[in-house]
Fold each of these.
Amino acid sequence: MIEWLFVPAAYLIGSISSAIIICQLMGLPDPREQGSGNPGATNVMRIGGKKAAAMTLFGDLLKGLLPVYLAKELGVSVELLALTGIAAFLGHLYPVFFKFSGGKGVATSIGVLLGFSWGLGFAFVGTWLLIYKVGKISSLSALCASILSPIYAWYIVGDLNLVGAAVFMMVLLLFRHKSNIQRLIKGEE
């Protein structure tokens, strides 16, 4: 029964905003009030540079990876593993510590996918890098990698619970990127 504590713990870990904490520590403006207003690595890069962005990206990735990896190492069921990943992801999108206003979820979803399977996470990252090399648009790279992640999950891990978690994260990631999608369609991104 105690293993069910992974889900609320993962949500609370996901609710820690790397962007806000890094910006505070580095004396940068609050990312929710500057640039795009999104507390994520891309916006932190706009307002604070590459070092701050890399630290934010790493922090967001870790908060997806750590709860899932620990749950997996402790041998929880695959259903609970999927719920742990979803909880960490939801914590990033809707953080209890920051009035339920969080980031778009790309780095945290990568962390969750890495926790499910290293191959799955690397497939996402590889797709992101390939699309970015061609198009030079971060949001397009994230959207393409996210759309392909359930297919990767099916072929790499083959478990419907983890495929379902990948689908869930993909749908929310698309929803959170709706303004980016509109700009991409208009050629303004």
Amino acid sequence: MKTVWIEEPFKIEVTDTQMPVPKEGEALLKVLYCGICGADVASYTGNQPFTTYPRIPGHEFSAQIVSIPENEKGLKAGDIVTANPYFNCGTCYSCKRGYVNCCTDNQTMGVQRDGSFREYITMPVERIYDGKGLSAKELALVEPFTISYHALHRAPVKPGDKVLVVGAGPIGLFALIAAKAQGAEVYVADVLDGRLEKAMHFGAAGVINSSKTDIKEEAMKITNGNGFDVCVEACGLSVTFLACIDCAAFAANIILIGNGKKETTFLHSVLLKKELNVFGSRNSYAKDFMAVIDLIASGEVKVLDMVSDIYPIDRADEAFKALANNDGSLAKVLVDMTAK
């Protein structure tokens, strides 16, 4: 079968590998679409600290069931599905307390273990979720959506809350959608007008181009000098984290989704002075997958508008290179694993 293979940073190819054989309790899946995550791009460029090489990338995908054991979920051959790609040990302190997303030995497909960028994969049945009639393209967008959905449920977001999302990449846009689904009035900040246009398309109440105006001043104008009830950091940059602190109201919540790669220096007394609640967010739960599938199935969210381009599997290397050199105009890029 065809497999996308990262031999080492910047060396990617489509090669032939052996078909997988399901173990007990596993299903054989034919992969339909794969999304390219920022973590996949980081693996390609050598900027993902958790990736070992060689590595098959990918953890955002949809698939068709080829074979599956009898199961309580009612899943059967032919069903179009998606799956949870975060493998937890089940025995660490986090897992024993039910925080499987924070497993101390977490292995995410495409990072610590081989991923979905191949024509066929095997998956434990308990990790597979019924697509409920969604298209294969929509289901390939469920996993990145769950990252933001989970994050926006880390802290209480109430109807009418003013929420600021800093960063309008795919995760930031999904955070916008998730916050709106909870009844919030959502504003988005970014340095690129094209991304801010996307944010308006997905229902932002307003946007801030922080390369052209002072983000704190704009935040205070929008909130009548109060600051935002919730600030979501979706870039992973020191400057955007500090912007969230500046733009947050007293007793506000800050949610961190962006995976930072550099240290941030600040006087932590501001957290005390404003009594800010800072929430980290990692991965997602099975319940988040189910909730996101239901939300998309409701028709309220047009997630396919997030897709900028689709490449056939034979040109997967071009897709990775395009995202590695993204000028901000690309949102989600999918790879059609069945197209040549």
